[in-house]
Amino acid sequence: MELRPGSLSPRALAQDVLLALFITAMQVQGTLALAAARGTEQRSLTDAGYLGFALLAVGGLVVAVRRLWPVLVFATTGLASVTYYVLDFPDGYGWLGLTIALYTLAAYGDGRRSLAIAGGGTTLIAAGWLVAGADVQPREAIGWVFFRIGVAVMSTTLGESVRSRRVIAADAQERAELAERTREEVARARVDAERLRIAREVHDTVAHAIAIINVQSGVTAHVLDKRPERAREALQIIEQTSSRTLREMRAILGVLRGTDDDPVPHAGLEKIDDLATEARAAGLDVTLDMDPPATPLPSAVDSAAYRILQESITNIIRHTGPTRVTVAVHPGIDHLEIRVTDQGRSNGAAALRPSGDGDAGRGILGMRERCQLLGGELDAAPTPTGGFEVMARLPLAPTGSLI
What we know:
Distance between the termini: 49 Å
Number of strands: 5
Strand order of the largest sheet: 1-2-3-5-4
Order of helices and strands: HHHHHHHHEHEEHEE
Structural class: alpha+beta
Low-confidence stretches: 1-7, 348-360
Radius of gyration: 44 Å
Strand content: 5-15%
């Protein structure tokens, strides 16, 4: 990985320039003050064309670009420091720039590579310092060499600690953003699921009502003159069906508007008798074969079972017409079995039923989706006798939910 330079903003560069001037002043003035206090016989900073001053100044001023080129700054300060001590210039604070460079290299590096460069470079610099201090007098002064090595190691350690904290903070921020995105996606998924549920409810409610109204309207037109009492009965059925459908639609749309004044009525198997009555009024000969469940059904299973029965009967009304229908509902130990079978058209021709692939098959597709959402299965196919059968198995402990 490439080493990552720090901020290049004007403010950061100005701070580094001020830091470089401070380090330079400390190295020069501090070294002069220590040399004067010790009165050593080491070379003067003015020897060799003020080379000592130049090395101290270079080792401090280069800190101004420490975040632009951290490796170059480290190499420059290290070379200047080793050269300074090898040429036997007065011991002092000529290592301050190097410690800043080591800190910067570790803090703004990429971890492993930057530490390898810092460790290898520090080893070479320490070796140079030790060679330069081999004949230092008095011998106790060799302790300052080890002090410089210790400070270099601590600077690198501090820089790595800062880098690690920065990485941890960045990871935490990334995880927080990911969690926020996940919450938003979950919320959108819930909204989409609720829209799909409402769409199914609207489809089932409206499709069934329209099928009943269509049949009864045809009956009314046929018997209006000859059997007015039958026409009146058909009109009453139309009125009752449309009124009930309007109430259900008002409740469903109230959910979309966010009002709960008219809660959505629960559609369950307790309404199967009303469903059979409507089907008989539409001309179907319905036979119910229903075993009462040992325990109350889960709400999602109860609702899905009713909607599957409703859609199956609606399809028979729309696509087959008057015929004999058997509705069987048998709860088992771990599943509920639903079977709706019709005998087909009265003339013996096979009923034309949607395959589930086109617009006409959205009813069967919707029933299959309801089953799959609960972890169940649905099969819809013609019978050998020319009729049609819908069979659904719903687990009593559903793995999903319709809501």
